[in-house]
Design brief:
The chain is mostly helical. Helices cover 53% and strands 0% of the residues. The protein folds into two domains: 70 residues, no CATH class; 61 residues, no CATH class. Helix 1 packs antiparallel against helix 2, helix 3 packs across helix 4 and helix 7 crosses helix 8. The radius of gyration is 29 Å and the shape is elongated. The relative contact order is 0.08.
Length: 182
């Protein structure tokens, strides 16, 4: 079976300068920098094996980014966008950022404000209140719990730092006077 050579990439001067600029920027993410190196080496007509060995990656990865670059160049996609990941499979999120923000705001309010006879919100009560207010049509308590956990929001501890629990000795004077009373 004959050996297939890698598909050539021919960068124009503008693309090459933009890629080299990306590579020199300290703020360029490492993933993007690696992809830039693959494309620049492919432009020098290096094989997948040479690129893989030099950059410490697999031939498959070299093939993937060379092929993706060629495909997106043909569609005239901007240079930086050619280096980004493709969208992941799966359904899009069901809730907007506004709805999620409303959940966080709701979780930070005391339940009594919404005529709930609770001292602290539970995921079930928050889900119920969101539906009741018309923020969302449906939402499970588990999803509410995941959203709160993702934001590291703990409604049961809300406002704790604003109103610390009372202590016996609130300052040094009362501490001294309490000790002298005994």
């Amino acid at each position: 079976m004959p050996r297939l050579s890698a598909e050539p990439i021919e960068l124009n001067e503008l693309e090459r300068k933009e890629l080299e600029h990306l590579l020199k920027r300290p703020s360029t993410p490492q993933q993007i920098a690696l992809r830039v190196k693959i494309v620049l080496r492919a432009d020098k007509q290096e094989s997948h094996g040479e690129i893989a060995k030099e950059l410490g990656i697999s031939k498959k990865m070299s093939r993937l980014w060379r092929g993706r670059w060629r495909e997106l160049t043909a569609r005239q996609v901007p240079v930086v966008e050619r280096l980004l990941d493709t969208p992941r499979p799966g359904s899009p999120g069901k809730f907007t950022m506004e709805q999620i923000t409303q959940l966080y705001a709701l979780a930070c309010d005391p339940p009594a404000k919404y005529n709930r006879p609770l001292s602290h919100w539970s995921a079930r009560e928050l889900a119920d209140e969101m539906i009741q207010q018309g923020i969302v049509e449906t939402i499970s308590e588990r999803h509410v719990g995941r959203l709160l956990k993702e934001a590291d929001l703990k409604p049961h501890q809300n406002g704790y730092w604003l109103h610390p629990p009372p202590t016996i000795f609130s300052n040094s004077k009362s501490k001294t006077s309490a000790l002298s009373m005994n």
